[in-house]
Amino acid sequence: MEQVDQDLKKEHQAKIKQVISEVGKVVVGQEYMVNRLLIGLFTQGHILLEGVPGLAKTLTVNTLSDVLKLDFKRIQFTPDLLPADLIGTMIYNQQKADFEVKKGPIFSNLILADEVNRSPAKVQSALLEAMQEKTVTIGETTFKLDRPFLVLATQNPVDQEGTYPLPEAQVDRFMMKVHVDYPTKTEELEVMRRMANMTFKQEVNTVLSKEDVFSIREEINQVSLSESLEKYIIELVFATRNPKDYGLTEEAQYIQFGASPRASINLNLAAKAVAFFNERDYVLPEDIKEIADDVMNHRILLNYEAEADGITTHEIISRILNKVQIAK
Q1: Does an H or E element contain 44, and which?
Q2: Is 300 within the bounds of a domain?
Q3: pTM for the predicted model, two decimal places
Q4: Structural domain harbouring 298
Q5: Which of 40, 90, 170, 295 is most buried per CB count within 10 Å?
């Protein structure tokens, strides 16, 4: 494998910090969400954002696309949305007396699928197929999607009436499920001051190009992960499937299904990205622990007993992290 240029790598690491700073000119707080979006972008993993309305999810993604100079499309998912509204369709051209392809909004770099659980299964599966295959078939022609291609889907955890929850097998295709929380008092005060000023408009500078994104992907790919940490990732994932084997007898009664092999793959990729962002060439156990909740919280299916006892996947993951040790 060709070694990356160290000076270029340091420049890219500095630029990642600059990206977060530029987004901060427009969006107050939410550095955590921006960090996770960048991890997804640089490791080709799609992100599911969950949070109540009004937390600047759309604004953050839109601003990030400007800072990275990427094409951005926002698609509002509704019960009457059709797959053709997403991927495109064949339309009849009267002048040419022939059918031609009209591409849908999925042909972009950053896709914000707003309230993805508002649309029925047909539309959800059309989106998830594009995510997985990175291609779209319209009529008899298959088109490759633009690179980089990243889907950021949002779910509203409060208003569940008239929604079509994503099946577990489909949710599993998202690299991370990120919970977006309320801002602090200081942050919300700043948000209020900015938004109350109707003339407020902050311009952002473009920091990274598409070529930079591809270079950073290669640099992250060369971050080293020791064999003991590789085994640690496997142990964490297996602890969700066979908790009793790890002394987690209480937790075993709550877990219906453990995490899939995608959890192992994405823990590896995300931990490398965290290490790279922290300007290291190697992964530490703390990098895996930092990302474990986001990677695994949507991959562990709890039963009704857990719901009755008020147990969440976050608690289960926290207990697993405390219990599973790194092999010497």
Answers
A1: none
A2: yes
A3: 0.87
A4: 223-323
A5: 295
